[in-house]
Amino acid sequence: MTLPRLFLCTAAALAVGVLAASFIGSGTVLSLLTQATIYAVFALGVGLLLRQNGMVSFGHALFFGSSGYTVAILLQMQAVSAELAIVLAVLGLGALAFVVGLVIVRVPGVAFGMLTLALGQMVFLTASRVRGLTGGADGMSIEWPSVLFGLPASVLFKPATLWIVSWSALVLLTAGLAWLLRGRFGSITEAVRDNEERARFIGIRTLVPRAAVYALSASITAVAGVLAALNTGFISPESLHWSLSGVALMMVVVGGTRVLWGPALGAGVYFLAKDVLGDHAQHWMAIFGIALIVVIVFAPEGLSGLLRRLACRVLRRAPAPAAVRPAGAPRVAH
Amino acid sequence: MPDYVLQAEDVAIHYGGVKAVDGVAMTLTRGQIRGLIGPNGAGKSTVIDAITGRRRLTRGRVQLGGEDVSALNVVERRRRGLSRSFQRTSIFARMAVRRQVELASWKMGTADPAADAEDVLRELSLHTLSEATAQDLGYGEQRRLDLAIALVGKPKVLLLDEPMAGLSVKESLDLAQHLKALTSRRGVSVLLVEHDMDVVFGISDEVTVFELGRVIASGAPAAVRANPRVREAYLGSAA
After folding, report:
1. What is the CATH number of the domain that holds B6?
2. What is the pairing mode between strands B33-37 and B189-193?
3. pLDDT digits (tens, 9 = 90+) for A130-148
4. Could you tell me the CA-to-CA distances from A332 to A7, A89, A247, B120, B139 in Å, in that order?
5. pLDDT tens figures, B94-143
6. Which residues of chain B does A332 touch, with a Cβ-Cβ cutoff of 8 Å?
7. Is there a contact between B149 and A322 if contact means CB atoms under 8 Å apart?
8. With an 8 Å Cβ cutoff, are A202 and B170 in contact?
9. Which of A267, A257, A264, A321 minimizes the C-alpha distance to A51?
10. Model's pTM, two decimal places?
11. Cβ–Cβ contacts within 10 Å for residue A298, how many?
12. CB-based contact B36:B203 (threshold 8 Å)
């Protein structure tokens, strides 16, 4: 995507968010949309790791929950302003993930997934048991100030404002990633993902880019955690549990990672299924599980990949891989 | 004494008691193509692995442009101008052709990676497929892409491990001619491991013959072809 096109798409998506806030009168609907968007940001982080590193994390809730806890604890201690607490939570967790990543991204495949699971559960158990600091299993309330980033709490915590903030975060993060990944950082991480040994033989040190993707993915997930903390004003160990990482991973698989907005689409489908099916079926998760199997078997690139293929067919042009060989181009040299 | 671009001295790779390569010495001058031949398991690919740093030397040393690079890792050796391709096609399957060739050129510090990539892709007849995803290319095209990745950035030395493997006779001869022209124009020295004797004797300036991890003959193609020991050990009566 060219830069002007990216800019236009971003502006249009931001405008859609503002318009939606104006047209949707129901606070309940806006709250549901906000929740779905926050999980879309979470899924964007998990999806980035899969897309650029080819790695599956079962422990990204670690960053989702930890960012909320970091902000809550810093505010409780009155150590820094709320704005600085948010910045520290996002950047601090990113930096921590980079250091941890330098160790764990060396481990390939399932073992990496198990390491992330172990790390996530370690923090979950710690948060559950350190009652003095985290409130233990009961969780803790977040004492937001009356003014945050210049916005009075009475405005900020309205459903429409929270929706615009969450949606804008999702749009800007996706656009930022699109811009970042179209450059050298994207090329390097793709090369390392596809063929690590060959990447070394073209002069790439492969460890740092892998750790950087892990850190970036963690920071994005931390943003989702901060948004969730803003939305609910409460944090508990549930937000660190591995099952939440599993939900985010399901969203990524359903949405696909071929395009950047795939995980966000997966989050949308998940919440749609949860709220539509949940009204009619007690065990809606089982139905969603079947849908997940269908997607994996029949559309392994996820719904975004399927939509992309359909769009190409409708526009009467073949999907990208097939379209690039011009008619008559030689398969054999000369 | 000639100005050697690459100098391998007393190179040995031992696995316990097994001497995969032992006491190998060879040189490359600027723009020279040296063919490495020998039966399977003779140690040709192991020598390439030793020179590029993929395998640790048991003994000996490797000099690139007069600098001892024996202790450097593959990334540092590549940055100093030592490039290679692999016996099995080794490309970036899900990346577009141009994107990966440009990346390889950029990592070598080329001033204009886009122009360099375009130049190499054009010379290897891959420019019409530059936006294709590598995994969608035919086998021959993937082999040429593998070569393009190794060639960009103007390396000093190119080590090619069976670049013609799996290609048809016509594709092999075409690629060989391109290789000869490209390396000559770019001033790259080449160490070529290949089983296609027509290719090796057709484009090499010198040929080195391996048997059981040791060099048994080295010299001009005609002299090597006529060497009775080489004929007995590898070429046979058909040579």
Report:
1. 3.40.50.300
2. parallel
3. 999 998 999 999 999 999 9
4. 40, 55, 47, 16, 9
5. 999 999 999 999 998 899 999 999 999 998 889 999 999 999 999 889 98
6. 138, 140, 168, 170-171, 174
7. no
8. no
9. A257
10. 0.87
11. 8
12. no
In chain B, which residue's Cα lies nearest the Cα of A258? Answer: B94
Query: Could you tell me the pLDDT band of residue A332, with boundaries at 50, 70 and 90?
Result: very low
Do B50 and B163 reside in the same domain of the chain?
Answer: yes
d(CA B170, CA A334): 10
Report residue B127 as tokens: 């420019």
- Contacts of residue A119, defined as CB under 8 A and 6 or more positions apart, other chains included, come to A59, A62, A100, A104
Q: DSSP per residue over A154-213, as a string?
A: HHHTSHHHHHHHHHHHHHHHHHHHHHHHTSHHHHHHHHHHH-HHHHHHTT---HHHHHHH
Residue B237 lies in a domain: yes
A319 contacts in chain B (CB < 8 Å) = none
| Cα–Cα distance, B55 to B62 (Å, whole number) | 12
Q: Is B140 on the interface with A (CB under 8 A)?
A: yes
Q: Which residues of B touch A197 (CB under 8 A)?
A: 90
What residue spans define the domains of chain A?
Answer: 3-242
Decide if A332 and B174 are in contact by the 8 Å CB cutoff.
Answer: yes
Question: Do residues B150 and B96 share a domain?
Answer: yes
CA distance B123 to B185: 11
Residues B11 and B51 in one domain: yes
Contacts of A199 in chain B (CB under 8 A): 92
Neighbours of A67 (CB within 10 A): 31
- Residue A283 has a CB neighbour count (10 Å cut-off) of 10
